[in-house]
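[step 3/7] fold_predict: job queued, chain A
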Amino acid sequence: MKRDVFSRSIARLTVALLAASPCAAQEPPQGVSRDNLRAGDEYRGVELDAPASGAIKHGLPVSIRVYEDNVIRPVDRDLLGFNHNWFWSWVFVEKGSTRPHPGLIEAAEGLPMPLNRMAGTGSQYMQWKLAVGPLDQRTPQRTRAHKSDPEKVVNAGPLEWVKTVRAIDPDAEFVWVLNMNKDRPEDHADLVEMFTGDGTTNPNGGKNWAQFRIDQGVERPVSVKIWELGNELDWGKERKHFHPVEKYIAACKEAIAAVRSVDPNARFAAHAATAPWGKQARQSGDWPNWHRAVLEELGDDIDYLAFHPYYHGLSTAAIGQYTQTLVDDIRSITGSDRIKLFHSEHGRWPPRPKDGTPWSKNHFMTHSLEGCLATGEFLNVSLSDPNVGAMTYHVFNGGPWKVVQRSNGEYSTTGIADLFKVFNQGLGDEIVDVRLRGEGVDLASKELTFTATASRDADGLKLILVNRSTKSARPTRFVFDRPYRLVKRIHMTGPHKDAVNSRTRREITVEETEIESDRAFTTLTVPAMSIVVLHLEPTARGQ
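[step 4/7] structure written:
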């Protein structure tokens, strides 16, 4: 019997808790309203219900019971994807050219990139037809709404992006966020033809866009797993064009028809409300009305609801209150769980200093050891949730959440790159049921600091353990359905929570240890501030 582990845990929360604010409200800063919010304003005016730091007693035990015959879901590596951004797309190419940058490719070597989304706010400004073809024939344009950003030629357009990502991971798949603000339906259809066509047919007439792609050096069609219907169009400057929700739905119907005129099997994601934890959305209680209307009108045409959970920030449990509402409404309105959640942006939210210090001083916290542990916790929770169909971490190529970074012309990776490599190593073929007992293991509590994912494959079991506690190592006892021996241990950690990896400092480390032992594995102490992956193989009983 399959078990909905995350939903089961969150369901224990009372109706009163769901109705209550997960954080105490403050007045928004002067001049900030729902109509002029910008990227980075998601938590403005919100006093965060911060998750526990894990400063608990030393040596608190944890017990982990793995039911390896109780399969939750197949392992879906689309939950280990990345979001990309037009603001910083220049990192993909050599300066003044459209050639993929060898420094970036070398820095990211070995990083699996199963799913790649383009992009956030900039997706509603960057017009793809102005960013393809020879560089001297491209039209300058702005890639975001900030008045301080001048028009410029986009060197790394959609085809350069695909080339560079494929140079890192040849098997990469993609998500394209349709520009609902500036592109027309016929532009959407032409884009589908350019990405997915083989060049032998020209379904839209006019320019053969698939042949154009081939002529530009991208011979193999681009595998677009999801076409996302705009980005955060319910707030900011785009709100005036797409609010109320009926305007957004009408635009979605036009876009869906245009895309399906070329690819009848295209899969779509429509977005839920942005940052529903904001004061106005919480006090009015109207944030679900957006996705409920979307489900009523578009439920037969979409495959995902896109949501942007930024955590720590809010605790994982607080975020779970919102995602549970989405899941419940999907089931009640559509009559099934076919539509999945797509966390198309997720990442650790660096706190805004209250003493007036610039927010940028805390940006490193997104990819510090503390940030890696927060993202590891969220990955653990999501991997075991069958309601989550895809996730793309925000953001691969830009600040402050960066996976890759450039300093003095040289590229390097942050600890987030190591985190995703470790998680990819820690997954088998199927997620299985795992139950934890002890302090700090309740998914519905903001005191959560210790999480686990268990999976199986032909070789045995793989476990991913995340101990976010800043002080407490956790003696852990394991119980399995059959005996296993430990054959490999991967340990990711650092000397302190603010440890970072940069071009000149590599404080976050990953150590792999092969184990030669036939003894049955039953106990392990998981160090504080650690991600531990265990590879287990069956052993004969009695050894």
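[step 5/7] annotate
Confidence is low (pLDDT under 50) at residues 1-32.
The chain has two domains: 5-30+39-72+431-538, 78-428.
exit 0
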